Amino acid sequence: MSDEKLPTYFIGHGGVSILFKPGYGPVQQDLREIGKEIKALKPEAIVVTCGHFQGESDAIEVNLKEPTKVWHDLGPSWHTTFPHVFEYQYEHKSSRALGEKVLQHLLDQGIKAAGVERDLDHGIWVPFKLMFPEGEDELDIPILQISTYAGNDLNAHVRLGEALSSLPGRILLIGSGMIVHNLRATREGTADTTVARSIEDAALKALSAPTPRERNAQFLAFQKREDWLDAHPTEEHVLPLYMTLGVGRDWSEYKVWNQDRYIIGQSYLSFRLGKLPSAGEGLSGRL
């Protein structure tokens, strides 16, 4: 098992609301199932790109801070509406040595990169609290966050994933974002989930494509959709998905979680690319 490459995951991370507001039980349950699967893989570390961390220029930024703490990167309205969320913590490990290793690997792969220091934003600690709950199934390995690129070049993020895929060792690569992320639509609160449903259906169709090449081509064509701007007024939350496509460029196997659990402006769809090293057949998508 030690010589086999680990699969990669895209996590629809949601906001801090999924930790305590009613109605998120099914989303929480599927994130927990993903966490159990990841723990069974026994990775030595997790490297995450997230929709809340874009580089400042044309370089990938690698977090070198150790230790890191929870960053309550929430809007000012949370202080008056739900102040208790600023008490949330998430105990975790960080590793400057791992960050330096990943940084050097990216440079060796021809990826422009630089080290920075920052704390763990809610695009990681929120889903990780559900995937690896404290007092029950904590992670005992380092979590390293790296940025996406500034801008919206999807192909650049596929290439980033390809570069990361050759990291030595049992390092698990995760993209944390949302396949539909339009907070304006969420705040307006209409009853129309047409866009979220349509984009999610297209993603499921792409995942079931006959080859990884065709799958990636379908995902890369999403920017040409008429409803893409309605799904992503800004594209930072979908960029981590394209990193995972680069990691899994040779893998046709996949599994889906949190299908059909969308709300106005947001989709929680999550998936794995690649098969489980200890599993046999039957890893096709759950549609």
TrEMBL record:
<dbReference type="GO" id="GO:0016702">
    <property type="term" value="F:oxidoreductase activity, acting on single donors with incorporation of molecular oxygen, incorporation of two atoms of oxygen"/>
</dbReference>
<feature type="domain" description="Extradiol ring-cleavage dioxygenase class III enzyme subunit B">
    <location>
        <begin position="26"/>
        <end position="254"/>
    </location>
</feature>
<keyword id="KW-0479">Metal-binding</keyword>
<protein>
    <recommendedName>
        <fullName>Extradiol ring-cleavage dioxygenase class III enzyme subunit B domain-containing protein</fullName>
    </recommendedName>
</protein>
<keyword id="KW-0862">Zinc</keyword>
<dbReference type="GO" id="GO:0008270">
    <property type="term" value="F:zinc ion binding"/>
</dbReference>
<dbReference type="InterPro" id="IPR014436">
    <property type="entry name" value="Extradiol_dOase_DODA"/>
</dbReference>
<comment type="similarity">
    <text>Belongs to the DODA-type extradiol aromatic ring-opening dioxygenase family.</text>
</comment>
<dbReference type="GO" id="GO:0008198">
    <property type="term" value="F:ferrous iron binding"/>
</dbReference>
<dbReference type="Pfam" id="PF02900">
    <property type="entry name" value="LigB"/>
</dbReference>
<keyword id="KW-0560">Oxidoreductase</keyword>
<dbReference type="InterPro" id="IPR004183">
    <property type="entry name" value="Xdiol_dOase_suB"/>
</dbReference>
